[in-house]
Amino acid sequence: MENLRTDPRKPAFEGDAILASDDVIDLISEDHKPLKKLLEILKDDSLERSEREASLEEFVPLLLQHAKAEQESLYTKMKSYEHLRMHAFAGETEHAMAEELVQKLNATPDDDEWKAKLKVLAEAVEHHIREEEDEILPEVGREIDQMTRKEIGDEYQALKGDYSLLLQKPHVGPEWEPVIE
Ligand SMILES: [Fe+2]
Ligand SMILES: [Fe+2]
After folding, report:
1. What is the pLDDT of residues 146-163, one digit of tens each?
2. Which of 51, 52, 93, 155 is 20 to 30 A from 147, comparing alpha carbons?
3. Tally of domains in the chain
4. Element containing residue 59 per DSSP (H, E)
5. Is pTM beyond 0.90 here?
6. Which pLDDT score is estimated for 177?
7. Ligand located closest to 92 CA
8. What distance in Å separates the CA atoms of residue 137 and residue 59, rounded to the nearest whole number?
């Protein structure tokens, strides 16, 4: 009998690459990728402020859209699980600190002070993402069943749509004010 999985003409998992998962763990991990790439540029001390501002302009809206959607979907759900509650509150606090740092950055005319603040912001976000990927999301996988994770994933996607307004606003410069709380 022909076994399609071992047929050399057909890839074993044909189509897998284009079938996006709707599990919130996968959606969040995927959205961390561009943020991590931009963080590499933001952390690079050899680059001047003007060179990094373009990446920051890309980074901030992506970060805020992701963080707000993640917080209102996943973190909110995590609060009803005993083992996840503390992680949710800690994550929320870290999101708020990052947003505050972005605002401080925008109100900093001195280039060296700006670079120092950017470094703190980039390292804090990098640490936050690493902790989510290494500890929190695996624990979410153990505590929350797959069906519920998919429901949270749908909610996360819808919230990202709601917060897409953030993507249209300038985020770098002293005149920036967060448009959505
Ligand atoms: Fe987060
Ligand atoms: Fe995240």
Report:
1. 999 999 999 999 999 999
2. 93
3. 1
4. helix 49-70
5. no
6. 60
7. 1
8. 22
